[in-house]
């Protein structure tokens, strides 16, 4: 893991994650704009084409898409990219919605769902592309910009997704096969609340 500016001094990677809305339209500014500048504005057209053809026009929170074969010549060369990814174009762009439309999603599990989708999308890509695998992924704080999720809550949700679906911790396996609705209700509340109010809001079983 790394901290700080995702575009300056971050380690070289195979893929970068772009949080988005469900329709692939640019409207929030922030980190999305920076990522699209890295690849060139044409990446938006490619993304919308994929969403239309593979997702019937809308990619839901909890889904992700991997874009590959990206063209370096389309990148905005007016910017200095030498400090990002060792000056190289990042090969893969993973788009994972954190909200359907641009609306605050601070009290949702959307960072968890989006990062879960990223992990599963990378896993599926690597299963199908054994000679061109994604090994290292650069991920911003999902939902902390346009969706206004508090960074600490986002970090908690992303860690839970990572430990469940990337690491496979035994203590997280209940999410793969829950024993009851109440168990998942407790988990949902845990994901969506800050530490200081969890004990008061999570019901007993």
Automatic annotation (TrEMBL):
The lineage of its organism: Eukaryota, Metazoa, Spiralia, Lophotrochozoa, Mollusca. It comes from the Eukaryota. Residues 1-205 form the Macro domain. This is ADP-ribose 1-phosphate phosphatase YML087W.
